[in-house]
């Protein structure tokens, strides 16, 4: 499976940066995060910044356009690196993204019709990518790929017996880009009781013309994934898959 590449932050998405420790100098947190990113991304310097990234001065602070993939950026956040933006996320921005997360879970629980598939696809930008890693590994790209994802889920698995819900979440970002990490929960609503499975979504959202939508999403199941429950359905996918 090709690895999910959520894209790179655009050159005009500039982040002011300063060390989480050391009074504006690169602290040990940045050093650790930068070293890891340098190992995984060619051209990334030891401070975690692309060697050819444009450097500018804004408001007396050093700013740099971070052309780093989403997961590398999350490394910086986890190391408590302080990142500021020209336009931080507003309360309204955060609520709109939060609503998108809830709509995602709500729309998955719709039926297998074409209208429902189109409603779900409408949560994403046309060039969006969705990476799934459970007992299968796939990357679904664009409108056609997202429709295949929706149709696959609704025809291969008995989703009408399940309910999807939103768990804990973290929304961060600015300058019309948001990085979101949130937990998903699937429970039985018929025939059985209890939790079916759980996992984590790691997303990149972008705001275009005042509208927030998902541009990249990666789904990773928790280690308790019930492979023995899902495997029989996957084994029958050649005969059960049906396009809406």
UniProtKB/TrEMBL annotation:
Pfam family, one: SnoaL_4
Location of the region described as Disordered in the Swiss-Prot/TrEMBL record: 1-38
Stored InterPro entries: NTF2-like_dom_sf (IPR032710), SnoaL-like (IPR037401)
Positions of the SnoaL-like domain: 92-216
Record's protein name: SnoaL-like domain-containing protein
């Amino acid at each position: 499976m090709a690895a999910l590449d959520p894209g790179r932050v655009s050159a005009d998405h500039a982040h002011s940066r300063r060390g989480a420790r050391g009074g504006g100098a690169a602290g040990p947190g940045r050093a650790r995060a930068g070293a890891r990113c340098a190992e995984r991304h060619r051209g990334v310097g030891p401070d975690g910044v692309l060697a050819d990234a444009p450097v500018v001065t804004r408001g007396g602070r050093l700013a740099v356009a971070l052309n780093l993939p989403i997961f590398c950026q999350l490394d910086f956040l986890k190391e408590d690196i302080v990142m500021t933006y020209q336009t931080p996320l507003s309360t309204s921005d955060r609520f709109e993204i939060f609503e998108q997360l809830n709509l995602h879970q709500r729309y998955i629980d719709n039926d297998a019709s074409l209208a429902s598939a189109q409603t779900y696809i409408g949560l994403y930008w046309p060039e969006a990518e969705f990476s799934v890693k459970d007992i299968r590994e796939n990357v679904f790209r664009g409108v056609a790929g997202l429709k295949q994802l929706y149709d696959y889920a609704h025809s291969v698995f008995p989703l009408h017996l399940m309910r999807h819900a939103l768990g804990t979440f973290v929304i961060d970002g600015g300058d019309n880009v948001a990085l979101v990490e949130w937990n998903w929960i699937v429970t039985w609503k018929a025939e059985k009781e209890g939790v079916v499975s759980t996992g984590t979504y790691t997303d990149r959202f972008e705001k275009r013309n005042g509208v927030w939508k998902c541009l990249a999403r990666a789904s990773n199941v928790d280690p308790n994934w019930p492979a023995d429950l899902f495997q029989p359905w996957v084994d029958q996918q050649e005969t059960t898959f049906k396009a809406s």
